[in-house]
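Now for one record.
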Amino acid sequence: MRKWDMTGPQLEKGLEEMLKTARELYDQVATTPTEQISSILGKLTEAHRFYDSTSTFYDFPSQVSADKSVRDASVEADKKLSEFSVEMAARKDVFDVMCAYQQSQTAPTPESKRLVERVIREGRRVGLHLDKEIQERIKDINSRISNLGIQFQNNMNEDKTAIFFTSEQLKGCTTDFLAGLEKDGEGKHKVTLQYPHLYPILRECVIVETRRQLLVARYSMCLDLNTPILEELVKLRAEKAKLLGFETHSDFILDARMAKTRNTVSTFLNDMVSRMKEPLEREFEGFLQLKEKECRENGEESSGRIESWDIYHYMQVTIRDQYSVDQELLKQYFPIDTVTKGLLSIYQRIFNLRFECLSEPAAWHPDVSLYSVFEASTDQFMGQFYMDLHPREGKYGHAAVFGLQPGVALSSGDRQPAVCALVCNFTAPTADKPALLTHSEVETYFHEFGHAMHQICSQAEHAYFAGTNVERDFVEAPSQMLQNWCWEPESLKLMSGHYKDGSAIPDKLLDKLVASKQANVATTTCRQLVFALFDQDIHTKENADTAASFSNANERVMGTPAPASTNFAAQFGHMAGGYDAQYYGYMWSEVYSDDMFQSVFRDAGVLSKEAGLKYRTCILQPGGSIDAFDMLKNMLGREPNSDAFFKAKGFA
């Protein structure tokens, strides 16, 4: 059982001991005598396993601890861990012995052979085959990139910006939402820039000026702190790519991804922009009609076009008016306990698993729950997952699954179980109501829990390939595929029930919800295209004006520039958190997720254990031990294609 109650000083001391042990394990790899070279693989595997299993004790608290002193100590620990990772990745002695192993030995399994190949490839990607001077510069760059990324995310986590609005300025927002907001001495409502405040207002508030102020504030979040960080990251990434023989950072990144080349990604994105142009224009025409009508009713002037702060609102109005889906009524059928019970039931059923909730979990906060996972047929223990679902000050502000311990084979023949944490920021309960989730939050819940199952169900031999350690442009596909369960009546009925009496969603409302899946698809798709095009643009340059680049991408795709004097990129955590030159992967992987769902689950049924086990075996179980294309072919029995993707969007 993990201990999460370390103080700042204890965390610092434990980290020193942990890094000392980890360094000794890598030293053992590097100093292996030639006559014992066959033992290197086992030593390297143990070094990976130890580091991945213990480092999270020290960096994860920065995301979830309620104690700021612990968060601060964990941020510093994260920096030291990142520096250590950079140092270990740049060890020429380890690289040399692995090259010697590859030349003289035969790896015992295909996965071990793949590990050797990947370790050597990663060595070349940090320049270990180049001159010493270049190696040192790349090492310095990687260290700086790592520290800047940590600071970028910490700036966002610690942001305390708030705006105060009157009830009139928040017209259209529900009484439940307003009741959950703090008030100042003048009776104004305190609104932060975090998701549980941001999206309800952008979706529900009918006052254009309020939406504008809030979106501008969000797009200005960490503006002065994070803009220079991101633009330095762009420079450093470009320099490193050149040193390694690549034209751009995008070329460097994609060389190790499914897409392989910048041209492939560019063609993919430009084709999507072209296909979405007319559907987006039609959707925006409808939005503008709604805006003109609403502005007249509220005595506001209309700008005559759809602005960035209008999009979420008129998407919501479209769903309400054209599909008659009342999101506030719908929320009443998604109390979080009911959704959780149904979600867990569905995942257990289709993947043949059993979850057991621990009554007194040792966790970092009283609201956190802990579950153990067992193979249902054999009662084999597979791992554990934590659930930390509601916002609090200083906590990670989005939704993600953090791997805490990889599930791997041990030298004893046993398996180390996987441990992970589902960290979300769902709407909190009020004094008289439980936490009620929007349908969008239900989708997020299902998606992120899919990542948790990927961690738990992976049966890779080595930590290097455990869980979600797949190609980055495939990593979202398994969870995106599982979001389909949030649109199927059979599964929706299992995860819903009115918070007062448990009654089922009325069939008419359920039918309207399912039909609304086709609502706003062009707008939603184009928003993702903006982010992906921006990402590719800045990462094909040596220097970037990130604010101008984002505004240009937004104007090209959505027809309107970003709000003046803002920079969305300063709060776009993906650009500093490992998705650089890879944001296209969300849409790229959606193509494969739709293919999997339509080909395997559509006919078999969303509760089919046979289909679920096929998916678990072909997609989740390998982790990253085989190529994603091969996983897909094994599951589909053919090459994957985009037919299902366009059918799902209504553009077949």
Q: What stands out?
A: Residues 262-298 form the longest helix (37 residues). Residues 409 and 415 are 5 Å apart (CA to CA).
